Amino acid sequence: MRCGFSGSSIIALRASLTASALLVSQAFPSSAVAAGAYDMRAMMAQPYPFSLQRAATMFKRPGQQVAPAPAPAPAPVIQATTLPPGSINPYVPATALISSGKGETYKSATVPVTVNAKRPDASTVSYAAAESANGSGSFWRDGVWRIEGQNEDRGPLEGSMGNSHSGHLTWGWRVSYTPDQENPEWFQSLRNWVGWPGGDWRAKVSYGVEQLAYTPNTFQRDNDLPDRPYAGVLLGTTRINLTKPFDGGFQQSDTLELGMGLVGQASGAEVVHRVVHSAIGKSSRAFTNQIKSEPVILIQYEKGLRAVYEWNKWLNVELNPYIGAAVGNLFTYGSVGAIFRVGSHLKRDAGAPRTRYLMTGETFPEKGKYWVWNLFAGAEQKAVGFNITVDGNTYKDTSDVSSKPFVHEFVTGGEVGYGAYRFTVTHVYRSEEFKEQTGQDRFIRAGFSAKF
After folding, report:
1. Is 12 or 337 the better-scoring residue by pLDDT?
2. Strands (E), 186-293
3. Which of 10, 65, 218, 417 has its CA 20 to 30 Å from the CA of residue 252?
4. Could you tell me which of 412, 424, 414, 420 has the C-alpha nearest to residue 448?
């Protein structure tokens, strides 16, 4: 059987299609304006459903130019979620760019997020691993250098607080560098592996090297009395300052220090002692009874609670009690103490210097355009288990004295500066460290920090 369309049938079909196109144009008036008349073959070729296709694409004449699709709207910036104060989401992807309130913008990262709403000088959400977008993530960029020195004190206090004569902690120096970055990558890896401290703790790390010389007291040495041995110390240190955001006027502030180095002749302290005395025209004695060369390690940890009250930006007061411990073949002891401080902008550093056996002028000052001053005084009690500079080497008895189990210290000092540029002076009074000691020790420490 043969089927076909007659001429009249084709004319009728064209009329029907034209009528259908007119009906579609009524249904899509905006599209009809954009595309004009429609080709039904193009319409029938569109995938289902029609509503997913642009009308100007579905219905067009053959060869007709279709208006380009409008540019997609930019993706909205994801805003970090504000959590209840004190809470933490350790695995929240944080992709927002958030200002710290100090003209800095933090890069996006997948890091723990914690609320910091009670700290007026920080953003609402604190990124535990944020790096400043201005390049402060670089190790050598915008860091703070600090140079410190100390020497025995035989000044106007001689005789008024005991007679120290000359010797014991004769001199020392320290150079340190603190990169302008919080939570360095290696520390983040360690934090993730160990699970300590929590993501709401911020870490700033200082890297330093220091050298100290301990010598016998001239009075005891000249009168053939038992005294401590000569001891030189050369130590490389990594000091980690751990802080939580201020909760009102209170802040937990801990310090972890790791040290490795040498004692004895290998420390080079005798060479430095001789060269410096020769340069200033003074004679020096050989380190005849020096402890033997030995590698040493030291792990120190202090846990403190800072309480800061701000009358205004120029007048703040701070009380910082703390406890600590040191373990290693250099020193082993436990300590408890407190420091009181009065000054300006006290929340913008890590507190006053401590009175450890090593040099402790690192205060981790914040950068910025602000003047700072402060005066401080403190006391510390040590329960000493081992002190290589008094007890001699760990593997051989190289000392003629016996260390005292308890040593107390008093510290006073002050600091002035502008932002991270600071000058600090500290005076330390230390009680007898061994039973045969005839007088207390006093020494002065001075430090200068600068941003480069």
Report:
1. 337
2. 202-215, 231-243, 250-263
3. 417
4. 424
Q: What is the pLDDT of residues 209-244, one digit of tens each?
A: 999 999 888 766 667 788 889 999 999 999 999 999
Same domain, 119 and 231: no
DSSP class of residue 162 equals B
From 110, 134, 158, give the residue that closes a domain. 134
Q: Are residues 188 and 320 in the same domain?
A: yes
Q: Is 288 exposed, middle or buried (0-12, 13-18, 19+ CB in 10 A)?
A: exposed
Whole-angstrom distance, CA of residue 332 vs CA of residue 384: 6
Range of the domain at 257: 144-451
Q: In terms of pLDDT, which residue wins out, 181 or 58?
A: 181
Is there a single domain that holds both residue 121 and residue 252? Answer: no
How many independent structural domains does the chain possess? 3
The answer to whether 422 and 449 have CB atoms below 8 angstroms apart is: yes
Q: How many CA atoms lie within 13 A of 44 on its CB side?
A: 6
Q: Of 371, 366, 322, which is closest to residue 344 (Cα–Cα)? A: 371
pLDDT above 60 for 123: no
Residue found under tokens 């080497």: 393
**What value does the CA radius of gyration of the chain take, rounded to a whole number of Å?**
36
Among 106-110, 310-314, 380-384, which stretch is predicted with the lowest mean pLDDT? 106-110
Do residue 94 and residue 124 come from a single domain?
yes
Query: Are 17 and 45 in the same domain?
Result: yes
Residue pair 333/384 in contact by the 8 Å Cβ criterion: yes
Range in 69-73, 142-146, 413-417 with the lowest mean pLDDT: 69-73
450: which 2 tokens? 């600068």
Torsion angles phi and psi, residue 214, rounded to 5: -110, 130
Predicted TM-score (pTM) of the model is: 0.68
In a domain, 175, yes or no: yes
Per-residue pLDDT, 71: 65
Task: Name beta bridge partners: 421.
Answer: 418
Shared domain for 106 and 238, answered yes or no, is no
123 and 152 in a common domain: no
